[in-house]
Amino acid sequence: MTVLTTNTNTTADTTADTSPLVCPVTGRTAPPAARPAAPPTTPPAAPFTERYLLDPSVNADPYGYLNSLRDHDPVYWSAMHRAWLVTGHAQLMHCLRAPAVSAERVRPLMDAVPEGAREDAERAFGILSRWMVFNDAPQHRRLRQVFQEQFAARSIGRYRAFVERATRAMLTRRAVPGRIGDLVADIARPLPALVFARWLGVPQAHGPSFWYWNARVGDLVLGAAQEEREYRTSLQSLVNLDDYLADLVKQRRADPQDDLISAVLAGGQIGKSVSEEEFVGMLTQMAFAGGETTSNLIVNAVLALLEHPEQLAAVREDPALVSMAVEEAMRFDGPSKMSIRTAARDFDLDGRSVRAEDRLFLVTAAANRDPARFPDPDVFDVRRGSASHLGFGFGAHFCIGAAFARLVAGAVVDVLVREYPGLELLDGQHTWQPSLLNRALTALPVRY
Ligand code: HEM
């Protein structure tokens, strides 16, 4: 069964419209058969050698390697990672549309838990199984729809004034012009946390435990927990977070406030199409999904601008380019490197036989540099208009928090770019957190 035949109504790929030479299925350029053969101008490509994606040099700068992997084979079986590495834009879009590709992957996480921590795991994995990102249709649609209205750009827009005020207040306190600091610790980490907690409805006094639990849940889901002790801490943190949010939901039911939880409850679906337990389970996903990724977008966007002074100058001259710069940073060096999926059944992908239960690493960071979709993909160009990047995913699981992330990152980049003419990178090596999924700097030393 091929992706094309299982999914006949969604196979039209927008890449097909951009050039008659680009195959809508493979995204490869058709061989120029009608053209006279030209003498080769470049030496033949070096043979491809697979590398470990967490190899420190690949992790530090993945794009050269990902480009060679995609050029070699955009659908590559990696014996090293025991997964299909899908790196072509068109192939990746096909996977995100294909019913044969499943987002359900709580079981492999459970299997990774060391024997000694298994007894703690049952409730925690019950909570994870309610995360919309781990559900397929029709469950997924039922879960997601209760949040849809509150995450839409027009609802998020109500928070613009608050976000802009919070941004200015934090920058004034922590980023005094001329001072040397770390953009990650000073602004990029605390600001999204502050506005997110306010939006969700978590009182400031509860912030420290709320974010501690979230970070430990992140260790579990992103694979940083390795030892039995770390697993126990992460599993317990997820249970604590669930208990805390269940309590908050009860309080908001009794006494609604101006926050996300109250607004969703007012929608009237909780307790009907979605149980309160499912609602709380999904809330445990929100902060994990939105906190660190938004921080990383701020940092990666500022880094890209500071490393491309002519682009920074263009944005300073025309503030309307700020949002395009943030979007281009999502494509060029976005916070999310890949999404993971499993084959629900055997299917054919670009001529490859994917077997039921095979893992698929959908490497969006590579697809976002696919020359079949983006001309000169390794160039950071704020005027590109890179709307079709896959940095927020695509299809049913497209990031529900995209409008919120764009609002917060846009507010910070706007003030930093326009009101900090002396902003500069300080010399030093940049250290990227070792992660298959996230593209995250540990620090970004700057002079404000
Ligand atoms: C720059 C910041 C962000 C990035 C790069 C990002 C990236 C992503 C990506 C790539 C996906 C798709 C995952 C997949 O297909 O497996 C996703 C889904 C999701 N994101 Fe985000 N995200 C960001 C911000 C946020 C924020 C602020 C929130 C919440 C407030 C959020 C909540 C979610 C949720 C709930 C899903 C699952 C949606 C579904 O399964 O239907 N994200 N995000």
From TrEMBL:
Q: Which InterPro entries match?
A: Cyt_P450 (IPR001128), Cyt_P450_B (IPR002397), Cyt_P450_CS (IPR017972), Cyt_P450_sf (IPR036396)
Segments carrying the region annotation (Disordered) are 1-48
State the superkingdom: Bacteria
Q: Where is the composition biased (Low complexity)?
A: 1-18
Q: Which stretches are tagged as biased composition: Pro residues?
A: 33-46
Alphabetized, the UniProt keywords read: Heme, Iron, Metal-binding, Monooxygenase, Oxidoreductase
Keyword check for Heme, yes or no.
yes
Q: Which family does it belong to?
A: Belongs to the cytochrome P450 family.
The protein's name in its UniProt record? Cytochrome P450
